[in-house]
Amino acid sequence: MRQVERTIFDLRRGLPVVLRTPQDDVLVQPLEGIDDDTLTSLATLAGHAPGLVITEHRHARLGASMPSASHAVHLPLSVDHRAGDVIAWAMAAEADTPKASQPATPAETAALGLMRRGLLVPAALSATVAPARREAVDALIADGTLLAVSLEDVQRYDEGDMTSLKRISEAEIPLAEAERTRFVLFRESDGLREHLAVLVGDPAEWADPVPVRLHSACLTGDLFGSLRCDCGEQLRTSVAAIRERGGGILLYLAQEGRGIGLANKLRAYHLQDDGLDTVDADQVLGFGDDERRYHVALQMLEALAVTRIELLTNNPGKIDAMSRGGVEVVGRQACYGKLNEHNRRYLSAKAERAGHWLEDVLEPSGVTDRRAPRHDTSGSLE
Ligand SMILES: Nc1nc2c(ncn2[C@@H]2O[C@H](COP(=O)(O)OP(=O)(O)OP(=O)(O)O)[C@@H](O)[C@H]2O)c(=O)[nH]1
Ligand SMILES: [Zn+2]
């Protein structure tokens, strides 16, 4: 699997890589950072013009219907296409509907999985290496200029979403909201992401079910107190609420921007400034409504021997994910941040489009500072 991880690093550097299938070698290059020269060099390397591969979400955004039940689409390009046109097809708020498209090949679909894992925009240039160019491409692979990886390995890596976690280090860190707190750091086996379990109070004294908050990282909100979201307040008030309930766990998950990464979240904010809501902005960039997966949280709870929880959340998706993963969610506690004029649209979109339970926060009148951050016991889930 190390070769797959190396491939992700090359893609993040904007370099092309080769995906090897039993039939073909496919050159793929991230869309991010391309210019006209990139298109020309890729065409020279492959022996013909590349195509653009985009996700089903992006394709739907372009107003086109999917050619089949595939999750990605290949849009053929010609040598006349300029990088600006290609970038617009992949990630502009407004773009022409493509004239022709075909289902992406398994190698192309797998390539987009690598882009996601590398927190890039999930769009790529792709070109099967023409027979006449195979020798030249092989030489570049042999001298280390190009990395090649087998499709089979990439697919196994993708499924291996179940990547194992290692408990790496831990320390007591007294917090303003909970003085008796221990941070435990877990690292994913490919080394790309680290997640924290913040253990509040003495585990021997935790209630059953254990109060748990799954908190997705939000650098802008958690650290800088951004008013565009409610994350910073949720983080602090949930630590306090866990302490008040006799202790429990806050899992701080490396899922910045609902899993799309900070660079893409800033792109999405930019699109929201032009009028899109939080879900549509992610779709413009090729992402689904919520790219988060919770297998890491499940593994951390397992490592901490926690099987029955009371979840601090307003997000029904988190409850589903825990239950499907075998953790019994016995109750839910609401967990609000303050409503303000900057986050009102974001919170409304979460309620309306993703079904989050935010009705207590979002009232038709009064936009500013109406409500202090608080926690409600919303009862059990029966
Ligand atoms: N893509 C995207 N992510 C955002 C945006 N605003 C906030 N986020 C991210 O959304 C996530 C919110 O995380 P959480 O507070 O754990 O989750 P939640 O889904 O709101 O659920 P609860 O807070 O548990 O009710 C964080 O990763 C933020 O970085 C946005 O406009 N676009
Ligand atoms: Zn946030």
TrEMBL record:
Pathway assignment: Cofactor biosynthesis; riboflavin biosynthesis; 5-amino-6-(D-ribitylamino)uracil from GTP: step 1/4
Xref: InterPro entries: GTP_cyclohydro_II, RibA, RibA-like_sf
Cofactor(s) the record lists: Zn(2+)
Active site: residue positions: 290 (proton acceptor), 292 (nucleophile)
Pfam families for the chain: GTP_cyclohydro2 (PF00925)
UniProt binding sites for Zn(2+): 218, 229, 231
Protein name per UniProt: GTP cyclohydrolase-2
Protein's organism: Chromohalobacter beijerinckii
Cofactor binding: number and manner: Binds 1 zinc ion per subunit.
Protein purpose: Catalyzes the conversion of GTP to 2,5-diamino-6-ribosylamino-4(3H)-pyrimidinone 5'-phosphate (DARP), formate and pyrophosphate.
